Amino acid sequence: MSSEDDDYMSDAFLNPLLDVRPGMPMVKRLKETLRRETLHKEKNILNQQKSYKEKEKNRRDAALQNSLSSENKGFALLQKMGYTAGQGLGKEGTGRVEPLPLNIKTDRGGIGMEEQKKRKAEEKLTNYRKRLQVRQHMEKKSLEDFRDRKRTEREHRETEGDLRKSQWACEQLDKQKGIIVPKDSWYWPEVVKNQEAEHEEPITEGSKDDMELTSLEKLQFITSYLRSVHFYCIWCGTAYSVFQQELDTKHDKYERLVKLSRDITIESKRTIFLLHRVTSVPNVEEILNEANIRLDAVRQKIGHVAEELGEDDLYQFHKAFMPGIQEYVEAVSFNHFIKHRTLISLEEINACLVFMRDEKTETKVCGRGLWPGACVLTFQVTPTDYLLGVADLTGELMRMCISSVGNGDVDTPFELSNFLRQIHDGFSYIGNVGPYEVSKKLHTLRQSLGKVEDACYTLRVRGSEIPKHMLADVFSNRAAVLEEDDGAV
After folding, report:
1. Alpha-carbon gap, residue 217 to 23, rounded angstroms
2. Same domain, 477 and 415
3. Do the domain assignments include residue 403?
């Protein structure tokens, strides 16, 4: 091999090889065949016959792209009616400009099938959400029930423990006082007995209650028994025997105040009944003097109340004497109205409830001066008792109105009507901020005012038609009917 020949590994042999793809080299005749096949396929696609649906769709789309001309009879009719091409529908031209789109149904489903499928899908989704919510609610409820059950079990265990401690303490304290038989079988701890003794011994009294009462109820009964009899607290673990005398003293004082309140109520009612006679007797001063004597006796009893209270808090025993004080306010305000035709104030009532007491004499109403060595006691009527007493006064004024008409006095009802309206206006300012008893008495006040106004209306309208000696019967019957209606309501 000479040096002038090219090496087969040189670039002179590698550069002319442009096609580096693997495989056999493609000849010119094969390339031409492939080109012709490609052109044939393109011509077949262009010359392929379109289906009827495709041709129909193409024609429809082309027609929809063009606007209607004036040659169209429908469009010509619209133009004659004033329509202009490109203008919106409506009188103002603000309506639809483009025509409604045309939706062609191409599937074989019935009419409304798509809406039904959509509705069923929505219902299925809604049901799934409901089931999911119910499941979540049940899981939450199950968790709450579990917590409640555990809390109840814990409380039951604590109750059982406190019950056993209370029974043991009750047995020990009863035996210390010489009590050998418990108040009930379950007040003391149960005694463990053998099987034979259980069959031989009959059922003791209280077994029925033992089956009916729960552990919590037993604990409440035993706790109340321990506190009231032995002054013992199971949770403090101490018997407060030092307070037994103090509690007994307060209880006795409460009972004495209740008795005094009853006496005050009785005497006040008698005074009110006496004052109602002023409408039928000629000598009114005699009635008023007797009423003043009775009211002084009532004040004397109120002085005993002040003496019983001493330095104790007024509101600690307020419920014991509250009814009597309200009845006294009603009596003294009724007496004051008959004398002066005005309403007595709270300050005037309290000014008369100042008493003097010494070691030798009993408690007396304070006069103009004090004697040497006397002790001054005061009793203050609370604003609530004053309001409730004035509310009760309206019922007595209503009865006074009927009695006055029966005796031929036609001016007093109108005077009472104006006075009751003023009292009603004063109570209306209180509204719902006062105690419950005030709102309850306000209802009674409105009933009394309504009856008096009905009487005044009858006097004004039919007073000349009805004889004076029959007016009382007419008003009494009407008041009875109104009371029945109020009771029915």
Report:
1. 104
2. yes
3. yes
pLDDT tens-digit map of 350-407 = 999 888 766 555 555 655 454 455 577 888 999 889 988 998 998 899 888 888 877 7
Instruction: Give start and end residues of each alpha helix (H) in 235-317.
Output: 244-275, 284-309
Dmax over Cα atoms in the chain, in whole Å?
Answer: 177
Tokens at residue 410, please?
A: 């036609």
Whether residues 170 and 228 share a domain: the answer is: yes
Q: Which residue has the higher pLDDT, 257 or 4?
A: 257
* H/E segment holding residue 333: helix 318-340
Please give the share of the chain, as a percent, with pLDDT higher than 90: 17
Q: b/e map of 131-158 (b: 16 or more CB within 10 Å)?
A: eeeeeeeeeeeeeeeeeeeeeeeeeeee
Residue 18 has pLDDT above 80, yes or no: no
324 lies in the same domain as 389: no
330 is in an annotated binding site: yes
Whole-angstrom distance, CA of residue 185 vs CA of residue 171: 11
Number of structural domains the chain divides into: 3
Residue ranges making up the domain that contains 387: 383-489
Residue 14 token pair: 């590698």
Half-sphere exposure (CA, 13 Å, Cβ side) for 324? 26
| Secondary structure tally for the chain: helices H, strands E | 16, 5
Q: Are 73 and 81 in contact (CB under 8 A)?
A: no
Query: Which amino acid type is present at position 323?
Result: P
Residues 343 and 279 both lie in one domain: yes
DSSP string, 45-82: HHHPPPPHHHHHHHHHHHHHHSPPPTTSHHHHHHHHTT
**Whether the Cβ atoms of residue 441 and residue 424 lie closer than 8 Å to each other:** no
Q: How far apart are CA 205 and CA 213, in angstroms?
A: 14
Statement to judge: residues 142 and 223 lie in one domain: yes
What is the separation, in whole angstroms, between the first and last Cα of the chain?
Answer: 141
Write out pLDDT tens, residues 147-169: 888 998 998 898 888 888 888 88
To which residue do tokens 């009893």 refer?
301
Cβ-contact 442, 391 below 8 angstroms: yes
In CATH, what number is assigned to the domain containing residue 313?
A: 1.20.58.190
Sign, Cα dihedral of 338, 341, 343, 347: negative
Q: At what angle do helices 284-309 and 244-275 cross, to 10 degrees?
A: 170
On whether 396 is known to bind a ligand per the annotation, the reply is: yes
Is residue 187 packed enough to be buried (19+ CB in 10 Å), middle (13-18) or exposed (0-12)? buried
